[in-house]
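Quick one, T. Sequence first:
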Amino acid sequence: MTTERLDQPRDLRRQLRPHYDPEAFGRLSERIARFLGTARFLVYMTGFVSVWIAWNALAPAHLRFDPYPFIFLTLMLSLQASYAAPLILLAQNRQDDRDRVQYEQDRETTDRSQAEIEYLTREIADLRMSVNEVVTRDYLRAELSRLLDELRGPEPADSD
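Structure tokens:
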């Protein structure tokens, strides 16, 4: 009986399922989903279906591979749709995750900005209170002028 040691890494075991990079697969799915949502894809798909139908309707009988109800075309379009839907959903989920992270970052930035604004508001209020207590040049001149007038006393009247 073998006991596993917790201070040693586990031995790598071979896995039967293939390994894939979920990030790379996600990026590929986003590229495909982005392409599926373009006018170019619609033009390509319309051209493909038109050529398919024209070939199977107008070509000589021995060259036709999908006669009139176009069952094989329906199967191909169903297969394309069955792959497109999950790829689009995967791309949307990844976008939702990015949006959630962006929202959290924006919220944190907003909170920090709000805290900074509140701090600056308090600082400005303190400065205003301090400035009210500081003697201004005009006030000092007026006070000195008043004191000088008091020291001089009343001016004698001119005798003419």
